[in-house]
Design brief:
The structure is a single chain. β5, α4 and β6 form a beta-alpha-beta unit. The chain is an alpha/beta fold. It has a six-stranded mixed β-sheet, sandwiched between helices. The protein binds guanosine-5'-triphosphate (GTP) and magnesium ion. The site of magnesium ion has 6 residues, from α1. Magnesium ion (MG) binds next to α1.
Length: about 170
């Protein structure tokens, strides 16, 4: 059994990474957020899988991501921002290159309150391209839609992985 889960949020600037974390913690949408949230730890007894869960707000260089930073990575984009959706594709590559072991990825389309249509049509081809992408979810930090679900999916991806979890150097 794992003793804890470490979730990292990455994504283009202003897609709502910090807001998602603050919304989860305070159960309301913060009008103003700092650039980066402090690392938070959710105690085991209030998480669905009963494992202490750390959530890390990442703003910076994907080159610095490594095994000690994350067990699962949420790649956040904004459903009303085409560029942030296109940029999603660059993260799996950067992340996969930085890791020896497979780390599950979750695609997170934030700001669903701002659009009527879903971004799935654009996202599905990306999902099909990378087997490391565990799942995708559309959510809104603003109206709290799918926020707890998102963090539950992330926990689940670590604790109950669906894909093969292997380290290339151990494969022989
Ligand atoms: P950086 O730290 O600069 O990379 O940005 P970020 O990804 O942490 O985004 P942040 O949480 O700072 O949010 C950027 C802006 O989007 C803010 O003005 C938020 O209020 C707004 N925002 C975040 N989430 C939502 C959402 O779900 N819906 C709407 N309508 N606005 C949102
Ligand atoms: Mg931020």
């Amino acid at each position: 059994m794992r003793k804890d889960v470490r979730i990292l949020l990455v994504g283009e600037p202003k897609v709502g990474k910090t807001s998602l974390i603050m919304s989860l913690v305070s159960e309301e949408f913060p009008d103003e957020v700092p650039l980066r949230a402090e690392e938070i730890t959710i105690p085991a007894d209030v998480t669905p899988e009963r494992v202490p869960t750390h959530i890390v707000d990442y703003s910076g260089n994907t080159h610095l991501i490594c095994e000690s930073t994350a067990n699962v990575i949420c790649i956040v984009y904004s459903v009303n921002n085409k560029k942030s959706i296109e940029k999603v594709i660059s993260f799996p590559r950067a992340v996969i290159n930085g890791f020896n072991c497979r780390v599950p990825l979750i695609l997170v389309g934030n700001k669903s309150d701002l659009v009527e249509h879903s971004s799935m049509e654009t996202i599905l081809p990306i999902m099909n391209q990378y087997q490391d992408i565990e799942t995708c979810v559309e959510c809104s930090a603003k109206n709290l839609k799918n926020i707890s679900e998102l963090f539950y999916y992330a926990q689940k991806a670590v604790l109950h992985p669906t894909g093969p979890l292997y380290c290339p150097e151990e494969k022989e």
